[in-house]
Amino acid sequence: MDIKQIQDLIRFVSKSGVNEVSIEQENFKITIKTNEAPTYVSATIPSQAAPLAAAPAPQPVSLPVASAAPAAEPAAVETSNYITIKSPMIGTFYRSSSPDKPSFANVGDEISAGNVVCIIEAMKLFNEIESEVSGRIVKVLVENASPVEYDQPLFLVEPK
User: Fold this and answer.
1) Are residues 155 and 89 located together in one domain of the fold?
2) Looking at the 3D structure of the chain, how many domains does it have?
3) Which residues form the domain of 130?
4) Which of the residues 39, 55, 64, 117 has an alpha carbon 20 to 30 A from that of 70?
């Protein structure tokens, strides 16, 4: 993998919203991590790579990349007695099945295990997300039609 391919990969990762990408080949490994701080790329080649012995050994590369604007922090809420419903996948969060339909779950609604609480669109597939707990919705943590990460909190539920 040459520097041009690495730069293209960095651009792709920064635009995609993914937090971490790791590529490992026979004699090459690269990991790109993003978060609210600048992104750093670390590339290493194992010393036992015989074909590359004639060339000078590459040093780990650190390239700063501008990250997306940090998301607004939700207000601090005492969550010790609440259960969090988390996103099971990366995608786009929707509170209802279409813009003209009511939301699946609103603050104050009573839900039970198996109730659909939202939809997450991933790769043009709309996945209904069901609650695994019973209780009352205390807070919706994600705005409608916004991207979500794997394991990102979506709802706070006060258990029954």
Assistant:
1) yes
2) 2
3) 83-159
4) 117
In a domain, 72, yes or no: no
The model's pLDDT over 3-26, given as tens digits with 9 standing for 90+, comes to 777 777 777 777 766 777 777 777
Does residue 42 fall inside a structural domain? yes
Whole-model pTM: value is 0.51
Is residue 20 assigned to a domain?
yes
CATH of the domain at 102: 2.40.50.100
Decide if 63 is inside a domain.
no
For every one of its 160 residues, what pLDDT tens digit does the chain have, with 9 covering 90 and above?
677 777 777 777 777 667 777 777 777 788 777 664 444 455 555 544 444 445 455 555 555 555 444 444 444 445 578 999 999 999 999 999 999 999 999 999 999 999 999 999 998 899 999 999 999 999 999 999 999 999 999 999 999 8
What residues pair up with 32 in beta bridges, in sequence order?
Answer: 21, 41
